[in-house]
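Worked problem 6 (solution included).
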Amino acid sequence: MTQKQSKQVVVHMDNRKLKPGRETNLPSFSKAKLESLIEEAIVDAYGDEEQTGGFFTMIEEHLALSFTVSILGVEAIVEKVDMTRDGRIVAVCRRDGVKQRIEILDLPLPKPAPAGAEWIAAYSHWRKGF
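Solution. The predicted structure is:
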């Protein structure tokens, strides 16, 4: 008799449209400011993978960590930013010793947003195809 091995299924929604607003609390910036940040992040980067890596570097360097977020009504601490094997930028959140990765564009930022959140806003703008 053989046992069936279960595999974890991960669903990616790469074509979704994310809007700054109530859900994520992304700070608002002028189009010129966002485009300036985008240019800085993707300078000398070719292709989406390298450009996403540029945003990861800027977010990792500039986002003030750690900070508290409320996820589904429960407070958690954002400890660090990471990049997954499939090229997604995620926030590593912790609560009571349990860690969870949340895609950075889905992270509900606190108000006021932490220093460096402009890089998340620029990344969101870039993902929309500025």
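Discussion: The chain has one domain: 31-124.
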